[in-house]
Amino acid sequence: MTDTDTDIDADAETSIDAGTSGDADPMQAGADAGTRVPIADPTLDEDAIGRVRSLLESGTLADGPEVRSFEEEFAAFCGADRGVATSNGTTALHAALEALGVGEGDAVVTSPFSFVASANAIRLAGGVPVFADIDPETYTLDPESVAETVARRDDVVGLLPVHLYGLPADVPALLDVADDHDLFVVEDACQAHGATVRGDRVGTFGDAACFSFYPTKNMTTGEGGMVTTDRDDVADRVARYVNHGRGETGTGGYDHVELGHNYRLTSFGAAIGRVQLQRLPSLNRARRETASAYDDELADLPLETPTEPRGYRHVYHQYTVRTDDREGLAATLEKHGVDTCVYYDTPIHRQPAYESVSTAATRLPRAERAAEEVLSLPVHPGLSDRDRRRVVEAVRDHYANQ
Fold first, then answer.
1. What predicted TM-score, i.e. pTM, was given to this entire model?
2. Which one is the CATH code of 26-40+281-400: 3.40.50.620, 3.90.1150.10, 3.30.450.20, 3.30.200.20?
3. Coil, strand or helix at 312
């Protein structure tokens, strides 16, 4: 499918910048008013609130028709045949790996530069996370490092690439590695709702893909997740696993054919998600517009701004710059009332919980260096023109005073 913002009607969305272009100087206004520019600002519109209110009145609170509709609509948005909703992104990853048969001792290659849930899900399924290094420009798995890692081992059964910060990993090259070694591929798309590679949306490239709908993501259900797949066997296994291993989902029966968990999404979450999905194209456009403005305004400064490879569409879950003066830049932005965050300051293979998985000799220099240099700036759709100017002027102020 092609990636167009008209797939879901967002024409009724009002501009997030309406009425802001004539504001006074943002730096002075922020200092006087004590306001801040937050790193994230999740909001729900009246339509979502109204749908939740209707569910409250109807008494349909848990899993049900609202969830089934959300699954169908989200899968269709991605271009996948099936969608199975889950309670969050971590449970989506765990359920997908269980559905693909990951078992005790099975190695799955993933990124060390990600939120820890990517690797945790492999361990929860009984597998062993094996880390390959990243591309220093995209921060996603380097296919050459993955190929070298797979060639050194005989226990690798799959790949779990992470589409980080809203930018897809190099899935064409990673799929070639997987095909050469007969490996499954699970996309961790928890930060990349609506991102594309060569016109196709993430969620359609591997054997399964997993999304998170945490409040700070590009779209939210409060807490929630989704597995998308074109494989009926995987979708059926995921649906059973998230519903206590029941043989038939949605029947209310007690025929438990295999081990499972309660990883179900609520009807409340699904109702919010259906509205958020309608808004997602416009929300992503707002993020891309802010990112483009930052790219232009920061281009002459001694820091690296995000890259968007040819044929890729970045949806900027985060706008992450790279600098050898991260603490100083963050301090200047803080002085100007601009929130920042570091995603992620400790690679997974250096986390205390992974001491028994990764030896001290494990070196992934590009991931380790990125962890020392990255800093994310506000890019959420709630930013006004004034907010964006304030961010840019704060960054420029830092380098002007060096």
1. 0.89
2. 3.90.1150.10
3. strand
